[in-house]
Specification:
48% helix; mainly alpha
Length: 175
């Protein structure tokens, strides 16, 4: 994505990913969806009706915390360097214990790995594995396709304005 003049769909996706997981002032660490594998109506996250669960949710009965799981893979794929568990938790809007559980689940499924922090060997950082990167790329591609379809009814000017406004919202969220 060009930093000077990104495509509206790419700029919108970037702004939405920056907003994803950010807590409203005064809300708990669980975020608006509770981050326990449910969506806004409290039902278990199982993907679109009639489809199997997406790969980031896990097998039948798995509690990977759908929205938080997606945000974790997205945050790690967007980061220029591996993240500490605390930085990851902050990026995805969950507390440190919840971030630790998500990382452990990711390690068990070989989607993320722990590595020593080169500046402090007592600390670990979290990075995506090749499989984790593959899934994150798939999520991003799917998101771009959905956004492109949603923007079909927008004029070019409307799409650029939406991108600008969402970017402004993300810049000022929580200030």
């Amino acid at each position: 994505m060009s930093t000077e003049n990104p495509e509206p769909a790419e700029a919108i996706a970037h702004a939405l990913s920056r907003l994803r997981g950010r807590r409203s002032p005064g809300r708990g660490h669980g975020g608006p969806h509770g981050d326990h594998g449910t969506h806004e109506h409290g039902r278990a996250f199982r993907g679109a009706p009639g489809l199997g669960a997406p790969p980031w949710v896990g097998g039948a009965g798995a509690r990977l915390g759908g929205p938080a799981w997606i945000r974790m893979l997205d945050a790690l794929s967007s980061a220029s360097d591996p993240l500490s568990v605390s930085a990851l938790g902050e990026a995805i809007g969950v507390d440190q214990p919840r971030a630790s559980r998500l990382v452990q689940q990711g390690v068990q499924r070989e989607l993320v790995r722990r590595e020593a922090d080169p500046e402090d060997a007592r600390r670990t950082r979290i990075a995506l594995t090749d499989e984790g990167r593959r899934i994150a790329r798939g999520m991003r591609g799917e998101r771009r396709e959905v956004l492109a379809r949603a923007l079909e009814s927008f004029t070019d000017d409307e799409a650029r304005e939406l991108a600008r406004l969402l970017g402004k919202l993300a810049d000022n969220w929580g200030n």
